[in-house]
Amino acid sequence: VASDQSWHSSSWSDTSWARPWGGWNEWGGHHWGHSWDSWSGYDWNEWEKEAEQAHEKASNNEEAHEKKASNGEKAHEKKASTPQAHDHDGTEKRVDAILRRGQTVDQLTTEELHLIVGHIDKQKKTAEEKADDEGEPDKPAAETKEERRKRLHARNMRYYRSLDSVNCPPEIARLARKAVDDAGQRSYMFESWLASNEDWKKSSLLVTLRRKGSSARRGLRKWVLYSEMITKWGEDIALAMKEAKETDEHKRKHEIRDFPDAPHLKQYLCLFEASEEDLDEEAFETVFSAGAEALTAEEQEMQETKSNANKAIKKANERIKAAQKVKTTTEIEGVGPHLLKAMKNDVEAQAQLLGQARAELQSAVDKDEASRQCNFQYL
């Protein structure tokens, strides 16, 4: 009871609870207020800076650790992949021991993994280099000037010996004696020998000399590009002709020229043979003539006219033969006997006129040949 009375008298009897609220000061407000200022002001800002600095420091430490680890891995990898003669056997033994342990990849250390990878890369590289060495044949050494001079000299000596040989065809021997004073004719024969793979018996020149009919026996040359020479004779023979012209002073001067349409390209005066029917297609040059110069415009026009005349004669011969076949025909399907007779008469009359024209044309061609005999010499 006494305690109840004392509590009642000290706490509530003075009606202190009924006083108005006086703020936090009654609760030690002055000291708390100072503490609040420290929380909301300087101390709080300092703690925030310290937190940021700690975070930045932790990040830097982490980056440095990662960089160090990366450098360590690269160093291990470089060390494992770099060929070293003194520890090659030791590396192989270590790798072999690691692989024989029966461990899985996730049980290997980083150093062991780098060691294995480096060893595998080295073996692969060695195998590839060995395969390249075995796959590529040894390249021939470049020909020296002295070796080239000896090779060309030996070839020239083979050519001259072929003309003195007992196996040389008599037609070729006579032509060689005739061409001894003419550089163009000698060049013509040399190219013929090259084109026949150094065998006169296989030479088209020999065939031409033995062929009957003057219209097919003319030796001809023309200006061609090196690529055209390769197309006609093959690379080996074309190169031999080109070298022969470049190493001989006379040939270099008279048988090599700039291509008119492309001065940076070279043309070479080379052996060509063609029938009369081909003369109107290209401007040829006559070899066994007064000189080795190109045909003039007048000479080319004369050749073209003669070629056209020979073509006309050839067609006339074909039509005359066809007319003779019709004349001997006794029956044609769908054609009555009277119509067949009239047709034969008409064809025969046309054949007679054609024969007369052919004879006149052939006579003119023969006269032209006789008048030009002094300018052209036939093989």
Give your account of this protein's structure.
- It is elongated, with a radius of gyration of 54 Å.
- With 379 residues, the chain is of the alpha+beta class.
- It starts with a helix and ends in an 8-residue tail after the last helix.
- It has 14 helices and four strands.
- It has a four-stranded antiparallel β-sheet.
- The chain has three domains: 44-101 and 108-126; 145-294, no CATH class; 303-371.
Task: Please give a handful of descriptors for the protein shown.
alpha+beta; 3 domains; four-stranded antiparallel β-sheet; 14 helices; 64% helix; 6% strand; disordered C terminus
What is the gist of this entry?
The chain is an alpha+beta fold.
How much is the average pLDDT? Answer: 68
Q: How much strand?
A: 5-15%
Tally of individual helices: 14
Number of domains: 3
Largest sheet: 4 strands, antiparallel
Helix and strand content put the structural class at alpha+beta
Enumerate the spans where pLDDT stays under 50 for 5 or more consecutive residues: 28-33, 38-42, 212-217, 274-294, 373-379
- Any idea what the shape is? elongated
Percent helix range:
55-70%
Terminal residue distance: 166 Å
Order of helices and strands: HHHHHHHHHEHHHEEEHH
Rg from Cα: 54 Å
Number of β-strand runs: 4
Walk across the major sheet and give the strand order.
Answer: 2-3-1-4
Secondary structure layout:
Elements: H1 2-12, H2 29-40, H3 42-81, H4 88-100, H5 110-135, H6 145-164, H7 170-178, H8 183-195, H9 204-210, E1 220-225, H10 226-233, H11 235-247, H12 249-254, E2 256-259, E3 262-272, E4 285-286, H13 297-327, H14 337-371
Helix pairs in contact: 2-3, 3-5, 4-5, 10-11, 13-14
